[in-house]
Amino acid sequence: MKVLYGVEANYIVEEVPEFMDFIKKETEFFDFQKCLFLYENKDQAELAKSLLVESDLFEGTSLLYYIMNGEKGETFDDFGLKSAKGYYLYSELLCAFFITGGAAEAIRMAEYQFQEHLVFTAKDVNAGQIYFSELHLQDLIKGIAKAYDIQVSFLDLDK
């Protein structure tokens, strides 16, 4: 999981190829999806923001998590984007957790119940599966874990 800086442009940017060429020339973006320029480097994101502000095309900024492999939940499109490079999740809207303990059958049943509340499941080689749910559902996730007597640990996505 990698943090990217998103700089959103007005939809008009896609209709002005000259401006797209200008942004490509002046900044080093990682990807572009649906009027959103994605940057690995915060300074490049700031430069893009200033260029968009100057051109009156700036809409907003976001932190996103870039994940190469995973499975979309039913509400994924409300909280993320998919591209040929992978998946992008809006960090400020989500909580992330993983299962740290419990009986195998209880874990399986809890995972089954979690499914209806998941936005995305990341498949990480080192950490196993990382589950993403809407931020306001964090207490519900804890309740499901408690009901099945399993342990979950939430990631601090602000770091």
Question: Your description of this structure?
Answer:
The model has no long low-confidence stretch (mean pLDDT 92). The two termini are 12 Å apart. The chain folds into two domains: 66 residues, Alpha-Beta Plaits; 63 residues, Alpha-Beta Plaits (2-Layer Sandwich), CATH 3.30.70. With 159 residues, it is α+β, with helices and mostly antiparallel strands. The protein is built from five helices and eleven strands. Helix 4 packs antiparallel against helix 5.
Secondary structure blueprint with pairings:
Elements lengths: L1 E8 L7 H10 L4 E3 L2 E4 L2 H13 L3 E10 L2 E3 L3 H4 E4 L2 E5 L3 E8 L2 H11 L3 E7 L3 E7 L3 H10 L3 E5 L4
Antiparallel strand pairs: 1-3, 1-4, 2-3, 4-7, 5-9, 6-7, 8-10, 8-11, 9-10
Using brief descriptors, characterize the structure shown.
159 residues, alpha+beta, Alpha-Beta Plaits, 2 domains, 6-stranded antiparallel sheet, 5-stranded antiparallel sheet, 11 strands, elongated
